[in-house]
Amino acid sequence: MDSNQQQNFFTFDGDVGGAAGYAGVSVTSNASKAAKTASKYLNDSLLLNELTERVYKLLLEDLRSQRERLGNYNS
């Protein structure tokens, strides 16, 4: 991350086991900045592909974690 970029932090809002909980509201919510970023990703197929791959990997990781937790409860 260079000095011109700021990292966005998201507050947790949901179930600990649910991936949807991390889709919370940004601490520094700015609708125009979000729209600009969304437009950037939608207009660049490479960036959009990278984003979807990352989301897919996070969902797989969450499913694996849930399976491990469920297995521990059934033992």
Write up this protein:
The protein has 75 residues and is an all-alpha fold. It is elongated. The model has no long low-confidence stretch (mean pLDDT 75). It has 2 helices and no strands. 57% of the residues lie in helices and 0% in strands.
Write the layout of secondary structure elements.
Blueprint: H1 31-43, H2 45-74
Helix pairs in contact: 1-2
In short:
By secondary structure, the chain is mainly alpha-helical.
What is the radius of gyration computed over CA atoms, rounded to a whole number of angstroms?
16 Å
Coarse shape: elongated
Query: Which H/E pattern describes the elements?
Result: HH
Largest sheet: none
Which range best describes the helical content: under 10%, 10-25%, 25-40%, 40-55%, 55-70% or over 70%?
Answer: 55-70%
Mean pLDDT rating: 75
Share of β-strand residues = under 5%
Instruction: Count every beta strand, where a strand is a DSSP E run of 2 or more residues.
Output: 0
Class by alpha and beta content:
mainly alpha
**Continuous helix count:** 2
Low-confidence regions: none
End-to-end Cα distance:
44 Å
The assembly state of the depicted protein chains is single chain
